[in-house]
Amino acid sequence: MNQELREKLEDMKEELEGILDEEDEEPRFLTPKHSKFRMGLAAVRTMIRAGLIDVFDVDDEIWAESRDGDAIHCWIVIGKNIDGENSLTLWCVDFAADRRFDERRSDFPYGRNLWRDCTMRAWLNGLGMTTILKPEDVEAISPVKKITLASDKFGGDAIETEDKLWLLSACEAGFAPDKDWNEAEGKAYPYFGKDEDRQIGDWWWTRSANRGSALNVWLVASSGSAYSYSYATYAYRPAPACVIR
Q1: How far apart are CA 74 and CA 113, in angstroms?
Q2: Where are the beta strands (DSSP E) in 66-113?
Q3: Rounded to the nearest 10 degrees, how much is the dihedral formed by the CA atoms of 211, 215, 216, 222?
C-alpha cells in the first residue's frame, strides 16, 4: 500500500470504524500487506467512493458480518472495474446452505433451468438477501445486468436480467466456451484461472443451463471442475456474486 493510500485511510478511520464491527480495535486493512478485510459491504463502498479502490486487489477477501451477527461471510474480489468504472465484483463462497435452483412445478416435476424465472433468483434477491445481509450492505450493492442463454427447450434466446445478487455463469467462473455456454453470458473474471480457484469445499450452482434440456443446470464440483448438469430441484450451494461501486 503506498503512502498516499495509507494517509487517506488514516483520515477516514473514524468514519469507517462506525461501519465496522465495534469490537474491532482498528480496521485490519491498515496493515502494509493485506488480503483479508473485516468490514461490511457498505464500508467497501465508502472506500471506493472516497477514491480508495486501489486498496483492494483481485483475490482479496472481504469478511462481512451477517444481519443477525451470528456469522461472518467471505466475499472474494474476483474482478476490479469489470462491471463498471470504480467497481469491485465480489463472490460469496459461504452465503447459505444448499438450496434448489428451482422448485417442483406441476408441469416440470424436476424444476426448470431458466435463470430468469427460477426460484433461486427470486430468493437471492428477496428473502435471501434481506435476511442474510445487513440492511446497509444490501443498500450498498449496485444492480447489474447479465445475459443468460436459455436452453433450446425454452427457445435458446439470450435473456437479460438485472439483479443485485446473481449466480456466475460457467464462462464467468473461468470455463472455456462450450456447446452449452459462451461469452454471451460474460467473460471469465480475472480471479478464475484454474480449478483450485473454484474450490469452496462443496458443489455449487452456476446459472448456465444445459442447452438440450429444460431441467438440468451446470454445476461446479468440489474439485473445481465443471460437472455436466443436475436437475434444478436438487440442492447445491448458492455462491452469488455482487458489485460494489
Answers
A1: 27
A2: 72-80, 88-92, 99-100
A3: 160
